[in-house]
Amino acid sequence: MHVLNEQFIDNAWVDSHAEARLPLLDPFHEAVIGEVTRGDPLDVDAAVAAARRALPDWRDTPEARRGEHLEAIAAGLEARREGLAELSSRNSGKPLAEAHQDLDDAIACYRYYATQARALGKRQGQADASGIEGFSARRYWDPVGVVGLITPWNFPLVSSAWKLAPALAAGCTVVFKPSEVTPLPERVLAEVVIEAGLPPGVVNLLHGDGEGIGAPLSRHPGIDKFSFTGSNPVGEKVMQAAASGVRPVSLELGGKSPILVTEDADLELTCDLVMAGICYNAGQMCSATSRLLVHERLADDLYAAIDAEMAALRPGAPLAEGTDMGPLVSAMQRDRVQRYLALADREGLHSETPAVALPEQGFFVTPRLYRDVPPSSRLWREEIFGPVLCARRVADDEEAIALANDSDFGLAATVVAGDPDRAEAIARRLEVGNVWCNCDQVAPPHSSWGGMKRSGIGRELGQTGLDAYLEPKRITCRAAT
Ligand code: NAD
User: Fold this and answer.
1) Which atom of ligand 1 is found nearest the CA of 230?
2) pLDDT tens-digit profile of 211-228?
3) According to the model, what pLDDT value does residue 1 have?
4) Catalytic residue check, 71
5) Which residues contact 21 (CB under 8 A, 6 or more apart)?
6) CB-based contacts of 123: which residues, under 8 Å, 6+ apart?
7) What is the pLDDT of residue 115?
8) pLDDT (0 to 100) of residue 423
9) Catalytic residue among 252, 360, 398, 424
10) Which pLDDT score is estimated for 78?
11) Which long-range contacts (CB under 8 A, 24 or more apart) does 301-304 make?
12) In whole angstroms, what is the distance from residue 25 CA to residue 2 CA?
């Protein structure tokens, strides 16, 4: 049994002020494997105070030195790769291979921001055109200050790396709240942070739910900026709370991403990309390509190929070799997806996907393709967060682009086309933050991540991800006479 009733503040585990705890589940065995504190506003006060105390020294630590700490965090995670992947797989239900992929992404992210920290050091004090004769100007970038970071459960260690690594590189100190659903892998970060030699108070980690930690953190006046990944309703609450004190927010929210397929696309490649886009992590991806827009000439063949692939999936124990789809993360998430399947019946949607044999235990749902779904359907418009794909046939690229853009969300898209120039021309017209043409959903740390419309505000990863934690400063001086 894992008992997580302590908070990581000032490089030490201290008892939470909360009495109440939440059960921690293994979603395959449907078994309670521990409990986690719900957290308390007093825990938030203590963590914010620690982060504020640590800020002046950390802000003044040379960028290159901060980069060394980030390298050490990457090394600490790498040394624990096997055990951590297993823990993450057990806690989230994702197949072990996917948990390994998460670890590799997180490690690469800390390493990348180590180099970005060094590059930031070189950027500081650059001469800038003054624009006025007899004046000189220089540019600097100051850390935003103490940042509040809140993450969901679907990519533990990755969502946190995308926030922690650039925030630390920038010189911010951090109060980090991981999801209460997958706290087990995240809590290991505390060990890694100590081992990496970070001074007390630079990283504080608070376990708890929205009520115990999330809401008090987003209301706390001691936080200078928030970076939130999660659902739209909660993102809006964080933004409202941040309005008090005019604190900036970065939001990575939901999606209902399209995959567009032209008539000359390779059928096998298309089927692979469709399957990865909707079945990876059992479809629990903000960037899941859950709306398929396929040219009418290819539609029937593609539908048949997808149905065959879905029927051939091997759902099973996350830690077992050969499992290619795990359970959903919780009973709540499974019930949510099943409500959409019941709604599909009421809406009269058509699916020919053969039922895949599901294990007797675990929060599994049957993967399903719905054919020729009307754009008015709630399944077409709302984020389902499970292996449920809605498809429509289109007459040409114009119709596909118009339907793709007819969404409240604008996170990501995939285009599959025989002609790469045509794929890119389509991609240019999509109202989303990321488009993959004829390839998987790759997101190396050098790239950028985030969405348009209701999918959020700002971008993570790349230099833009670092700049999100920096305040540009310009110093203009009259030249000595
Ligand atoms: P969620 O919004 O329920 O929870 C996210 C985090 O917010 C959790 O840590 C939760 O405890 C916390 N929280 C809850 N109430 C809060 C409050 N009032 N104030 C502050 N924090 C609060 O989301 P979830 O169910 O954990 O994750 C699924 C959602 O996340 C999906 O909508 C998905 O699209 C989105 N997501 C987006 C991205 C992206 O990059 N755009 C990535 C992953 C997940």
Assistant:
1) 30
2) 999 999 999 999 999 999
3) 87
4) no
5) 5, 35, 36, 37, 38
6) 139, 141
7) 98
8) 98
9) 252
10) 98
11) 301/267, 302/261, 302/267, 302/270, 302/271, 302/274, 303/352, 303/369, 303/371, 303/391
12) 10
Q: What distance in Å separates the CA atoms of residue 302 and residue 296, rounded to the nearest whole number?
A: 10
Cα–Cα dist 140/170, whole Å? 12
pLDDT for residue 383: 98
pLDDT digits (tens, 9 = 90+) for 377-420: 999 999 999 999 999 999 999 999 999 999 999 999 999 999 99
What is the CATH superfamily name and number for domain 257-445?
Aldehyde Dehydrogenase; Chain A, domain 2 (3.40.309.10)
Does ligand 1 come within 6 angstroms of the Cβ of 412?
Answer: no
49 by DSSP, 3-state: which? helix
Rg value, the chain, Cα: 23
Average pLDDT, stretch 18-38? 97
Binding site membership of 286 for ligand 1 (Cβ less than 6 Å): yes
Task: Determine if ligand 1 sits within 6 Å of the CB of residue 460.
Answer: no
Q: DSSP assignment of 383-440, as one string?
A: ---SSEEEEEEESSHHHHHHHHH-SSEESEEEEE-SSHHHHHHHHHTS-SSEEEESS-
Q: What does the block give as tokens for 240?
A: 């409202």
Measure 330 CA to ligand 1 centroid, in angstroms.
14
CATH homologous superfamily, domain 2-253+455-476: Aldehyde Dehydrogenase; Chain A, domain 1 (3.40.605.10)
DSSP 227: E
Retrieve residue 264's tokens: 């000359």
Boundaries of every domain in the chain: 2-253+455-476, 257-445
What is the model's pLDDT at position 244? 97
* Percentage of residues of the chain with pLDDT beyond 90: 99
